[in-house]
Amino acid sequence: MFADLFPLTDAGAVFAVLLLLVLVGPMLVRPLRLPDLVGLIALGMVVGPNVLGIVSGQVLIHALGFVGLLYLMFQGGLDLDLEGFVERRRASILFGTVTFVLPMLVVTGVSLAIGVPFLAAVIIGSALTSHTPLSYPTIARYDLARNPAVTASLGATLLATVAALLVLAVASAGAEGNQGVGYWLLFTAGMVLYVGAMLLGVPRFTRWFFRGLGQDREVRLTYLLSGMGLAAVVAGAIGIEPIVGAFLAGLAFNRFVPDGTVIADRVAFLGRSLFIPAFLISTGMMLDPVALVTDPATLTLGVALVAAEVVSKWGASTVSGRWLGFTANERGLMFSLSVGQAAGALAAVVVGQELGLLGTAEVNAIILVIMVTALLAGVSANRHAPQVPPPGTEGRSLGKRVVVPVSNPDTIESLVRVAGQVAAPDSGAVVAVNVLPFDAAPEQVRANRELASRAERAALAVGSEVNTSVRIDASIDGGVLHSVVEQDGTCLVMGWEGQSRRRGSLFGSVIDRCVAISPVPVLVCRPGIDEPTRRVVLVVTSDEVGFGHDRGLVLAAEVVGRLTRQAEVPSLVVTDLPEDELRHRLDHRIRPSEIVTEPTVLRALASRVREGDVVLAVTPPATSRLGRGAHRVAQAARGRTVVVVVPR
To answer: How many Å apart are CA 37 and CA 32, to the nearest integer?
Structure first.
């Protein structure tokens, strides 16, 4: 009776079984304090063709599993802390080199000692020197994505995976007889062109697309996923493994998917809930436990490879971690991220089988390594991640989380545009907040939610990601500052009427109180009559560069640099300082297109300001009110957008 029913062939039934396994797998292993991925792999093995045979050779599950493999690498590229990677590139290079060379030597040597032929041993070595960050979801759950050890490990993932796949390509080319110079020249040229197109061309196209056709989140999500698939297909077409293409696609889209935004949550949710579990289940279906038990050669090879891979990866993590000054728990995170095998190992299995170099024994042994290392990766992450404190906000870039209080319908678009330009260089997000008093009527709440929706549309229109919030608080300034803390803000942009005489409104004394106690820098913005930014004008007087005031000038120069880069416009500095002194104080932070030096700065500003200008002024950090100086700059700007920069 059941022989006629199984294996399942109906697509709906197969999909139902898959989702049931995704639901039940984690529930079975959590009481045992084992990682979710262990339950998924084990259930995949049980229902697969080698045990119960409930699901056998299904294209649907294998297709979803392959997408999950791509998704895992894609997510790693999206979440990689690019700033931290650049700052710690030496750590990534060091760990990537050690975690490739040491396992390659150990695993290949062990394989040769057992009697595996040379080319097959090299392929097995390449399979187990790369690594897939299977424990990354656990580490991300503890908010450790920006930890230096995690950043170094993710960077090392790219280096070790690419190096392992190059070794695999050399071994497969040797087996097929493709050893000519022409073959390798074409392969190298294709890889260089592909990587250049992914890391230079794709981000520019994505920025153009998000500002134009991609102003809807559903469209953006579809664009990101299709880009991942297309990058993998093109990579495979030119001889690079698709998983490398997926990782590079994640790097290319990294700056357009800020942490904590709606689009980032949707991408992560789709992978965690379906694609990555499908990949783990499909991996379990490949294991034949009967062959492991009944064939001594398979079991011996599997145990030897597990020992060689685990010991070498642990040694690489320990040596590199100690050299880099990481704690024992951080070294545990490095081990958990580098010990897991999936992507490169499966690629090597497929290539080795196609070439006839790997038989059933080698394949089962490598699948055993994948299962055991997946277990170790999860256990290590669960053990060490809770012991590592999350990185603080100190040293975070200005544009990571730009908080913008919105209440005036006439200025929403202008404020959000400035905030988006500040956030863009850091792939940051705009947080539009609307603060209402406790006694706000339901009609006020609905009206202000509509204002928040307008802010969201305005941010999407300029290519930025945005989160919105309508907050009830005892006071407006308290609500604004509480939002900065709760949203993990790095900068506050506040609207201003251009004067400081009014009291009791969001654009009067409220700003003064926020400026006085804000934990982050404040950009006080008087929106102008022009929408497109055509030039950025920085006003610098001798009052702003006195003792203790250079912080304001440094911050203003950074904001000028962000606005000019994002809008691709020139900059002008109007000052009463000698040009040499000004350049010395700017210290090459910006390279203005023009410097105007005149004793009367405001008169020079009024005579040179023009349509499309954004004017920046500096307020010393000790100032509790905006003061007349900023008010006079706003008057001299003649209706143009004015941003007063107040450092923390």
So the answer is: 13
**Range ranked top by mean pLDDT from 362-366, 408-412, 543-547:** 362-366
pLDDT in tens, 126-160: 888 887 787 887 887 787 877 888 888 888 887 88
Ranges in the chain annotated CATH 3.40.50.12370: 528-648
Closest to 238 in 3D by CA, of 272, 283, 193, 201: 193
β-strand partners of 574: 539, 596
pLDDT at 544: 65
CB contact set of 511 (below 8 Å; sequence gap of 6+)? 494, 496, 500, 524, 626
Q: Closest Cα partner for 308 from 94, 98, 105, 95?
A: 105
* 3-state secondary structure (DSSP) of residue 491: strand
**Average pLDDT score over the chain:** 80
Average pLDDT over residues 348-370: 77
Question: What is the pLDDT averaged over residues 175-193?
Answer: 72
Q: Where does the chain hold its CATH 1.20.1530.20 domain(s)? A: 63-387
Cα-Cα-Cα-Cα dihedral sign, residues 73, 74, 78, 82? positive
The residue with tokens 């396992």 is: 103
Contacts of residue 447, defined as CB under 8 A and 6 or more positions apart, other chains included, come to none
**Helix/strand/coil (H, E, C) string of 277-301?**
HHHHHHHHHCCCHHHHHHCHHHHHH
Say whether 405 sits in a helix, a strand or coil: strand
Alpha-carbon span 467 to 487, nearest angstrom: 10
Q: Please state, in angstroms and rounded to a whole number, the distance separating the CA atoms of residues 135 and 332.
A: 11
The tens digit of pLDDT for each residue in 75-120 reads: 877 876 676 667 778 888 899 899 999 999 999 999 899 888 888 8
Q: Measured between alpha carbons, how far is 37 from 134 in angstroms, rounded to an integer?
A: 8
Domain 63-387: give its CATH architecture: Up-down Bundle (1.20)
Taking the domain 528-648, which CATH number applies? 3.40.50.12370
Give the pLDDT confidence score for residue 320 in this predicted structure. Answer: 92
- The domain defined by 393-527 folds into Rossmann fold (3.40.50)
